[in-house]
Amino acid sequence: MNDAGAPLIKAAAWSAVGRSRPHESATLHVLGQATYTDDIAEVAGTLHAALGLSSKSHANIVSIDLAPVRASRGVVAVLTVQDIPGTNDCGPIIHDDPILADGKVEYVGQPVFIVVADTHDNARRAARLARIEYEELPAILTPQEAHAAQSYVVPPMRLARGDAETAFANAPRKVKGQLFVGGQEQFYLEGQIAYAIPGEDRGMLVQCSTQHPSEMQHVVAHALGLHSHHVVVECRRMGGGFGGKESQSALWAAAASIAAAKLKRPVKLRADRDDDMLVTGKRHCFYYEYEVGYDDAGRILAAKIDMVSRAGYSADLSGPVATRAVCHYDNAYYLSDVDIRAACGKTNTQSNTAFRGFGGPQGAIAMEYVIDEIARNLGVDALDIRKLNFYGKTDRNVTPYGQAVVDNVIHELVAELETSSEYRARREAIAEFNRTSPVLKKGLALTPVKFGIAFNVTHLNQAGALVHVYVDGSIMVNHGGTEMGQGINTKVMQVVAHELGVDVERVRATATNTSKVANTSATAASTGADLNGKAAQDAARQIRERLAAFAAATYACTPDEVRFAADTVFAGAMEIPFQHLVQKAYLARVQLWSDGFYATPGLSWDAKTMSGRPFSYFAYGAAVAEVVVDTLTGEWKLLRADALYDAGNSLNPAIDIGQVEGAFIQGMGWLTTEELWWNAGGKLMTHAPSTYKIPGVSDCPRDFRVRLFENRNVEDSIHRSKAVGEPPLLLPFSVFFALRDAISSVGGHKVNPPLNAPATSEAILDAIAAVEAAACPGA
């Protein structure tokens, strides 16, 4: 027993959130003991599956001879579309995405049949032995071709505000142009995999590497002609997802389950990397045609853009991706009069899908490209043009889709980064370097980020959780989010520990499982910690309130006088170890478990008018990149990067800084080294690490400075934190525009370099040649 003041002081100073803690599986990762789907001990009798893939981009199937496949070593069965007992579909929104091709193939790599064999290698070797006769059809491979042919997977969309046509016509200055930004392979370390284990009474357990267990449950149930309650999907962790396992894990889960149900034996389907890349969709590439009017100072007066993405052969998530691109075209800038058009081109390529940023990066980079051109046209530093066009605090603060920007910190954040990065002094030093360096040229750029947080489909913004407190004082939390390395379990554990006033070591997060928390949304849209943290907090709060009421009755105080902190319950003048109170509560028959639920308030979206309040709040950030380019070879190096990111009141600063660092390098790869290339027959030729180049350790800058901006979310997010999954991927825009700045110096910054993304060494050389030709037309 203590005096009444000391316990309250101790309780007030304690916190389980806002502190840097290691990832809950960090030790397991380092020791190689973390269990991924392929590490799960195989049940006796397990078989292995592989997919037989199309070799044509668009063709009718005339005949299939599977006899050589069936005769191959170790083969147990070969299944085609006729063997699917339920619905042949794995499309997440529009049902236009067959599990197996039915009479026609629409891209090279489309699954046609399933081989099941005694080993993975035998299945994969057999899958290549099929003899398929095709009647080839005309194929569309690029977004430009799709746009010209009016070939779309969903109707085109348009967002208009004001009178962009008149404003553009009256603008004293104008810029027009085209831009192409390529796609990106998710390149998760763990490939697509599903392990289906049949159970009693038509039950099916699917261990699956997926960001969306509930959707996998629905797809498998429909494919097998069952109800959802027959199917349980579980995911302990993924070796990366990045959006590629949101909807596209469905094909693998469905194929494994179809085989397991047919053979009544466990079946594992693990994709090799090249099969994975041939079959699955990527980040959407975008082609843009833009027209922007501005005044003599560089303030934008009118913005018109027509953008078309390469959707692939089916809709998948292309519609929502395009919507987010439209809603992020403004990035951090106020646009008074706009006409934004977006289309999802139907092409005979892999069906493109979610990728970290989900269209936001593709929308925002177009506006950054325009601002870069305006600055060069005016002979002004691009940072000054950016600052001139920033959203205002009390005016010029409504987005084109009608949402007020009420939490604008971009001015303060950029000012802080401009000072801490020594931007102006480095700009002068780089200009001096370039004057005396004929071959190596340096470039510098500072780019901002404003990114909306929430699913832009309102009903997806919900989550559930379960919290169990056991008699020994240990705690289990289960929630609908999935762990893909981003630390959602760590953050949710911290939230539960904080709510119950216990050390995080007392809390354990278990595998995401559709039989525990039902009807979950995908772990995507940067909402994982926001939604599931709130749901877990709600569950833990209910238990805490029950324990507080019990403690108050037991120790003669009011519930308001009970505090939980530092593994201790402070009840009036009494201090009781948490586990002792739990034991007493159990004996008194107090409920020690609870479910929790959360739905993000205040969201709305009208898809017809492209207006509403689609986002709960905005996350902000900015980055400065300095590069050096070899103008003879096109090789380049990132010398230094400074990033400042608004994570709000961060739940775990160490994890958040790690997320910013990872997103920066991943986004840099998208814009520089990662090139997707299809040959004339529509086959993806960059389908392995040998031909598809993600950034390596040597590509990371030696001087990499990442900090979190001191801020507190104005919205009632989980502990006033902000999302950190997707927004930082836009920070390496600074790298792309630093490269453009370096190339521009070849022509004395008088010519806008025609640089598309990815800015490979070849693309850089082409842009240098174009600048030299324009700067010296007679040479």
Task: For the largest sheet, list the strands in their spatial order.
Answer: 3-5-1-12-9-10-11-20
Binned, the helix content reads 25-40%
Shape: globular
Total number of strands: 29
N-to-C CA distance: 90 Å
**Strand composition percent:** 15-25%
Q: What is the radius of gyration?
A: 28 Å
For this entry, what is the oligomeric state of its chains?
Answer: single chain
The residue-averaged pLDDT reads: 97
The parts where pLDDT drops under 50 for at least 5 residues are 1-5
Helical stretch tally: 20
Structural class: alpha+beta
Largest sheet: number of strands, sense, barrel closure: 8 strands, mixed
Brief summary of the model shown:
The chain is α+β, with helices and mostly antiparallel strands and about 775 residues long.
